[in-house]
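Bumping with the actual sequence this time:
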Amino acid sequence: MGLLLLLLGVLGAELYLARISGLFVLIGIAWLLAGQVSALQLLPVCALLLLAIPIPQVLFFQITSPLQHLATSLATSMLQLCGVPVLQEGNLIRLPSITLEVAEACSGIRSLFGLCTVAVLYSYFAEKQVFLRVVLVLCSIPIAVAANALRILGTGLLVQYRGAEVALGFFHEFSGLLIFMLAVAMLMVIHLLLSMVRFSR
């Protein structure tokens, strides 16, 4: 199976198929050398490795565009709630002093996959119930989207009240790491709440 995927990936110039073929080869080797049980024990590891493989570019762009629009809309709504005069035009956020563009890099897709990976690792080691593991991984998706919208909100507020030099300088680079840490903390809080509900029954 793995060799077939590798062949199809190489002949079709599809790197994703060629890359995931290695996972099937790994499982096949474990099955051949150590048996079915050992091969099945590798499935969680292979699932984690699968998250490390970049998705196909076609799928990447199909996900990125809706995420850009969603992040722009959420950030615009939150800026309006904060009393900032703002107008949304596509993926552009027009403020009185400057126009912010929610570019592909600001869509949040990289932080989304990163947080999903952290959620898989965290749920595997911190939670025993499979159902709650799945819930935590699924919760990482809206958390990542909300966190990205908060980052854009912070940029917009700084532009409005402190100027573009402050908002688009060091803060713009540092805020990504800060917001990602906040998203991980939110994931842990949700796990804590789910555990409290479970033990209260």
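The tokens above came from a reply further down the thread. The chain has a mean pLDDT of 81.
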